[in-house]
Write a structure and sequence with these properties.
Blueprint (H helix, E strand, L loop, with lengths): L3 E10 L1 H8 L7 H16 L9 E12 L2 E6 L7 H15 L2 E4 L2 H16 L4 H4 L7 H4 L10 E3 H5 L10 H7 L13 H6 L3 H25 L5 H9 L1
Parallel strand pairs: 1-4, 4-5
Antiparallel strand pairs: 1-2, 2-3
Helix pairs in contact: 1-2, 3-4, 8-10, 10-11
């Protein structure tokens, strides 16, 4: 098994940035600020899904498979702030240079991390390298859509056609894997306001496990993994 890091992020509205951009008084509650942000987004685009720079990262969960080692965890602790969580993510890339695996990571997770790392001034030269520091990264890096150092499964399975994409829970359930198990990304803001960060992290870990299982199935059909290895990988 190659050294791979499957990852997923969970986000909430960045109400601090919302206050600055829309000049909202500090006396207004975070909940009301978020509603203002949703309303303005609906006016701009017809839906309330916020522009990516306005997503504050509250959880990054990962599955790491390296040789015989298999780990599932969420970065940092319940008390970690956004900067520490993102720094830990990029520190892992700096140290191990793993193959990144995601579901819609190219369209959401990584761009959000780009914007938020800019906000916090987080250095990640290995991640951003396109061959200036390591010649191998010229031909296979984390940023190029068609390189394998980051495999966005949603993008690959849809043959890079937006009209062909599907949701992770649909794909996972279709293959007989657990799926969402009672929660979805639409609940994250409500859970956060109810101080249920642990439940959010648990949900995020479920998503990366589903992504990992789909990744194994894809590697099998791509001829990179014997079919019997999938059962062994899940059980280990």
């Amino acid at each position: 098994m190659i050294n791979s890091l499957v990852f997923d992020i969970e986000t909430i509205p960045d109400v601090d940035s919302g206050r600055r951009i829309y000049e909202i008084d500090d006396a207004i509650s975070d909940s009301d600020v978020a509603e203002i942000m949703f309303t303005k987004r609906r006016e701009q685009s017809g839906n309330e899904f916020l522009a990516l720079p306005f997503h504050r990262v509250i959880a990054i969960s990962a599955v790491l498979r390296s040789g015989d080692q298999f780990n599932v965890w969420s970065l940092g602790t319940l008390d970690s702030d956004e900067k520490e969580i993102i720094r830990r993510f990029y520190d892992g890339i700096e140290r191990f240079s793993p193959i990144l695996v995601s579901w819609n990571g190219s369209g959401f997770d990584l761009p959000v991390l780009h914007y938020r790392s800019m906000l916090h001034g987080i250095s990640a030269p290995r991640y951003w390298d396109t061959g200036d520091n390591d010649r191998e990264f010229k031909w296979n890096n984390y940023l190029n859509r068609y390189h394998s150092r980051h495999t966005d499964l949603m993008d690959v399975l849809a043959a890079y056609q937006q009209r062909a994409v599907t949701r992770l829970d649909v794909m996972a359930t279709l293959l007989g894997f657990p799926g969402k198990m009672g929660m979805s990304g639409a609940n994250v803001w409500d859970y956060f306001q109810a101080e249920k960060l642990k439940e959010i992290r648990d949900y995020c870990e479920t998503d990366v496990l589903n992504t990992y299982l789909v990744y194994l199935r894809w590697r099998m059909i791509a001829g990179q993994l014997p079919s019997q290895s999938i059962k062994m990988s899940v059980m280990s």
